[in-house]
Amino acid sequence: MAFAGEKVGEVYEGAQSFDLVVRYDPQNQGAMENMRNTLIDAGNGQKIPLTYVADIVSTSGPNTINRENVQRKVVVSVNVSGRDQKSAVADIQAAIGQSVQLPEGYRIEYGGQFESEAEASRTLLMASLLSLMIVFLLLYTEFGSVPLATVILLNLPLALIGGVMSISLTSGIISIPAIIGFITLFGIATRNGILLVSHYEHLQTVEGLPLNEAVQRGSKDRLSPILMTALTAGLALVPLALGGDLPGNEIQSPMAKVILGGLLSSTLLNLFIVPIVYLLINRKNART
To answer: Which of 37, 47, 160, 201 has minimal CB crowding within 10 Å?
Structure first.
C-alpha cells in the first residue's frame, strides 16, 4: 500500500468519480533509505523496519507478473504485415530453435490468431475428408457402381488444378478463405460430373444408344448447362476477386479467386477427361 497504493474509496465531483488512493508521497516513494526504514507489523505486534526481513536493492525486472494455469508467463506479441501468419510463425520457430536455449523449466507456446487458424485448418481438413466420403457413398448409392462414382469424383483434381494455379499466381497463400473456396469448388465440379455421367447412363439404358453415340450426344446436350453454370458463378465472383484490396474483401477475395481458377480448369477439362475415362471404363467392362 505504501509504494504501489491502494484504493480506499471514491471522490465525486459533479457527475464524475475519482479513486481515492492511499500511498506514500513522492519524496518517500523514491528514496531507497526510506524504503528500507519503512515499518511493518511483526508477529509480536511490534513495528520493525522492512530491512530487518528483506534486502532492498535496485534491479531490473518485469513490472507485472502474469500467470496462466498457476504458471508464470510472459507474452511477446507481434503483428504480421505483407505475408501470411503461417510462414511468419514458421520462420520465428526456426530462428528461436537455432539461437535460443531455454533454461530448465521454461517452454515456448505459440498462440493467438496463429493457434486459432491452425485449429480451424484442422477442423476444415477433417470436415473435407468426411464430406468426400459422404459424397462418394451418395454417388455409389445413386449409380450403384464404384467406377462411375470414381469418374464423377475425377472432377475434383481437375478443379484442384485451377484453384492451386490461381493461388500461386496471386497471393501464394493457402488461407482459411482459400480452403473454403476449394470446398465450394468441389461441390460445383461434382455437380458437373453428375450431369454428364447421369445423361450418358440415361441415353444408353432408356434410349438404347450405343456407348460412343451416347457419350458424344450426352456431351453435346450437357455442354450448355455446364457452361451456363460456370459463367453465372464466374461472372458473379469477378468483382470480389478483383477487389481484394478493398476493406471487407479480405475473406471474399481469396475464396473468389480459388473458385474462379477451379471453375475454369474443371469446366474445360471436364468436357474432355470425363467422357474419355467413361469410354475407357465401359469398354473395359464390356470386354470383361
So the answer is: 47
